[in-house]
Each structure stands twice: as structure tokens, then as C-alpha cells.
Hints:
Blueprint: H1 11-18, H2 24-41, H3 47-54, H4 59-74
Amino acid sequence: MKIKLDIDCTPEEARKFFGLPDVEPMQKALMQQMQDRISENINQLDPENMMKIWMPQGMQGFDQMQNMFWNAMSGKKPDDK
């Protein structure tokens, strides 16, 4: 025996029928908070600001990283000079 039942209703009607809470206002508030945070942090994507964050000591950090790579490729240990 096969029984087929088609129910034609909107998601809102189904939610009310099953007694589920309406979370749409909460979702809107959270999405607005996320949008505000993204908008505030978008300025950090500026290349100049990113370089300031990544290399706070200027080129000294770059020189240290370059020396580390050269030492690794040449087989030198960090203690060797």
C-alpha cells in the first residue's frame, strides 16, 4: 500500500504549524552585525596597512626572513655565521 500526501504551504505556514520559532528578526540582526564588522575591517585590506602589520620593523623583518631562506638553501644552521 502506498499513500502519497502533497501539502502546499509556505515555509512560514509550515513553521507555524509545527510550532517552530520565527528566527528571521535574529537572522537580520546578526547579518547586520556581520556587515558592520566587515565594513569596519575592510580598511585593513589596504596594501600599505597590511605591510605595516606584517613588517612592523620595516625592512629588518624582511632581511631576517631572507637570511633564514638563504641559510636553509645553503645548508647552514642558524648558529653558523
